[in-house]
Write a structure and sequence with these properties.
By secondary structure, this protein is mainly beta. The chain is built from 1 helix and 9 strands, in the order ββαβββββββ. The longest helix has 4 residues. The chain is globular, with a radius of gyration of 13 Å. The chain starts with a strand and ends with a strand.
Length: about 100
């Protein structure tokens, strides 16, 4: 798992690339990144599957914010990112969510 950030000079946005490694994906057919940046819509941001078995996507996020998120694997298994900036408890889902800070 990894999170890479590239801040834009032209506007207060950051291109954040999320990558779920093949070991974490466990042979998944479909992975989506779901979080505050897409109103927890499981269909909004499907990740691209790579031949290596990894999944990746890049999102433009507003700078100066923190976003809670999780990965949804094969539409049934939720997973946090082991490289998240921090984690926070979600009373709604009774679990911890990953947090990316931009």
């Amino acid at each position: 798992m990894s999170i890479k950030k590239r801040y834009l000079k032209s506007r207060p946005m950051c291109k954040v690339t999320f990558r779920l490694d093949s070991e974490s994906a466990q042979g998944a057919q479909h992975v989506a990144i779901v979080g505050e940046f897409n109103d927890w819509d499981i269909a909004a941001n499907p990740m691209k599957g790579l031949k290596s078995g990894e999944f990746t996507t890049t999102l433009e996020l507003e700078v100066g914010r923190e976003y809670q998120f999780r990965y949804l694997i094969d539409r049934k298994n939720w997973q946090n990112d082991g490289q998240a900036d921090k984690y926070t408890y979600s009373a709604y889902a009774n679990c911890e969510n990953s947090v990316v800070v931009v």
